[in-house]
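User: Hi! I'm working on a homework problem where we have to compare a predicted structure to a textbook description. Could you give me the structure for the chain below?
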Amino acid sequence: MNLRTDNIYKNYNPDILETIANLSNDEVFTPPKLANEILDLLPEEVWADSTITFLDPAVKTGIFLREITSRLIDGLAEEIPDLQERVNHILTKQVFGIGITELTTLMARRTVYCSTTANGPYSICTEFDDEKGNIIFPDTEHTWDKNGRCEYCGANSDNYGGGTNRENYAYPFIHDNFKKEFGDMKFDVIIGNPPYQLNDGGGGGGASSSPLYNIFIEKAKNLNPNYITMIIPSRWMKGGKGLDSFRKEMIEDKRIKKIVDHDDSRDLFPTQEINGGICYFLWDKAHNGKVEYTYIVKGKKQVTKRFLKTPPLDTVIRDYKHLSIIEKSRKLNEKTFDEIVSARDPFGFGTNLFSVYRDNNIDLIDKSEKDYYEIYGVLNGKRKSMFINKKNVIKGLSEIKNYKLLYPVAFGTETTLLPNVIMSNPSTLCTGTFLTIGNFASEEHANNCLSYMKTKFFRVLFQANKYSFVSSRRTFSLIPLQDFSKPWTDEELYKKYKLTQEEIDYIEDNIDPMD
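Assistant: Happy to help. Predicted structure tokens:
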């Protein structure tokens, strides 16, 4: 085989990995350009070190391993002049991967070795004695606890049970199964794009998912490498199911040296919209200090050097210009708006009530009658109201008699406008499609609250804490509570919190006016 010394991987036109489609929304393939941007976070000297080992714990197309190999081929040219000897050394001693499925493992071998079998006649490495090489996919099973949950990843046995299955999403890296192949090998650099989430069998119709990328990062840290760099959803910075302890650990970890954070995931994955944005980071075991934080929103780049932790907040303020506004909004030590926001399902009825009420023996009718409450919800994607027998209502009874604002739990992440909020009269309730805001004795107070919610001041603080299309009580926790005996305007709020003209201009430029 004639290995070209310019670059053995650059003679594809076009590069197939630029055009390949994703297998799913949760396992997103990394474009070559993005893979190289992530590799650029690493110090330049790693590419000229023949002793450093690299591991991709979630191999899909093999792009990271291919580009690592390409850089090492260039960087080690002086130390190992013979190209074949150099390639053999890199692929047998330095570059390792763990597949996430059998298909992606074969794809990665084809990408890295130019052959689906590492020891095949077309492989660019001549020293492997088996077909796996250093890109493995060991048989892995979930380990179920007494509740039918996997002890490693939280998968539900109803969804992923049934014995050994090479497509059962029991990822070998987070199930500690890769050690059968690699033993206690020391990996200096752990890099990759891990699966983002896994259906956990919860929620309406079993559609609930739990994050996985945090488990990959925690497992990587446990291996004590010198560097970790991964690309993950940015939603961990503000919220996310089961991510509280992970967020706290990440915020307080001073070994995180760099973060590049895109507000819009389509900047990096043009065909994928990942709610809350996407980021990649460099964790450096030798670093102990501030993070070089690059935030990109609407094509504008903001670079700051700071700590992720900003007391008393337990979230990351991604846009640093938000921080001064948040700090000023807290100086008066007022209560926060989340105190008047309900938890999910405020009256105990799920979002699908209007389609399943007959199955659940709930008495719902279309017209108002005595001994019935009006209830707002959604049917076939459209809002509507019905009337529910008072006997079926056992939760939230103390709030039914007053005025409330019904705030939709889910709405688009692209807009800074307030969604269509319903003014709820006394004796009115809602399904889990809405959160309730307030428990007002008069319609005037409810309207005054709504006037506050329409201000740009309110909405800029709301946006600072919103990480997905789903809102919760927590999303409102950065917003100060006001006196609703009067309506509110932005001019009054800017003056009350002593915002500078620069801060006002930032709000006016970034928050859309309400009609």
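For your comparison, note the following. The chain has a mean pLDDT of 90. Residues 337-510 form one domain. Good luck with the assignment!
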